[in-house]
Amino acid sequence: MSCTKSNTIDVEGDSLIGFVPVANKATKALVNGTALDQENDTFGSMAYYYATADATPTEYIANQEISYDADDAKWETEDDYFWPKDANATLSFYSYYPYAASSYFVYDASAADGLTVSTYDVDANQDYDLMIADKVTGASKTATKTYVENGVTTKFHHILAYVKDVQVKTADEYKTSTITLKKITLKTVLKEGTYDGAAWTATTATADKELYNAETDLTKDYVSYFTPDYYLVLPQTLSASTQALEVVYSITTGATTEPDQTATIYLNADADGNGFGLSAFEKNKAYTFQIKIGLDKIYFAPSVEGWEDAGEKEFEVK
User: Of 188, 167, 170, 166, which is closest to residue 179 (Cα–Cα)?
Assistant: First the structure.
């Protein structure tokens, strides 16, 4: 007989890479609140490996879709990825939302958060609420243990703007006249551009977006007249007498209905300085526009024509 002894040595197990996505400030394409939807949302991420802090990075995780795994209660890739064992090695993560728009996001280490956006048409992609996360650098099993335990903190920021609402009311209470709203159109807004990681550069392409088309009698209180739940727009500088809200309405007084009226309200200002006074659509901001439609009241200026002296008429009776 022989006696065999075996020694079992426990080696620290491999650690799965997970994520903790957070949406910053902000129908399903639009992300509202501060968290992604575990059932429906997915985002994309890529990671680069640094053997040392000064080493040339190599791809570690190719552009991958990150989704929530209810069984693990974690956000993770479909194929498991693990933290490097080398104590000197670190990973840098670059993430974006949504994964469905992955073809537009380009890795660029020189960009603010490591990602840029190629030529993008906002008007044609209203289902994509584009976001880029703060880049994560210097992550490792030893340097960032909370990432290993809880997931890589992935904080997203919206890089588009959006029109949240358009509200309209009468300037006063008109008991003898009825103002009927018929149409609201957002006009001549730049719709296409590229994003360098910090700012958008727009092309000259523009879009007109119908925001409301019905017939509703206005009241003296602001009411929302906005057919879509939102309208995403490209961040851009607004020029005088260019981008505008065009409002079509009619006025009925007694049995008389006047021809439709069209008011053009410039987002910046017109040549006379009238408008909303908005200088730009800025990324990660939502905009509500309020419009008052007024009438000039009819006043009277009475005067009395004085008696004209016809002169004295003399007649003698005999």
Answer: 170
Location of structure tokens 């991420």: 45
Q: Looking at the 3D structure of the chain, how many domains does it have?
A: 2
User: Nearest 5°: phi and psi at 40?
Assistant: -120, -25
Residue 312 lies in a domain: no
User: What pLDDT, in 10s, does the model give residues 72-127?
Assistant: 999 999 999 999 999 999 999 999 999 999 999 999 999 999 999 999 999 999 99
308 touches 260 (CB < 8 A): no
The span from the CA of 126 to the CA of 207, in Å, is: 13
The pLDDT tens digits of the residues spanning 4-22 come to: 222 322 334 467 777 787 6
Q: 158, 178, 194: which is the final residue of a domain?
A: 158
Enclosing H/E stretch for 167: strand 161-170
Tokens describing residue 237: 């500088």
| Closest-CA residue to 28 (of 166, 97, 129) | 129
Nearest 10 degrees: CA dihedral of 182, 258, 208, 228? Answer: -10
Task: Return the C-alpha torsion angle 309, 310, 314, 315, nearest 10.
Answer: -130
| Same-domain pairing of 179 and 271 | yes
Q: Is 19 exposed, middle or buried (0-12, 13-18, 19+ CB in 10 A)?
A: buried
CA–CA distances in Å: residue 260 to residues 19, 144, 240: 55, 65, 25
What does residue 102 show for φ and ψ, rounded to 5 degrees? -60, -30
Cβ atoms of 293 and 177 within 8 Å: the answer is no
Q: Residue 148 gets which letter from DSSP?
A: H
Q: Residue 29 has which token pair?
A: 């394409």
For tokens 């009277």, name the residue: 300
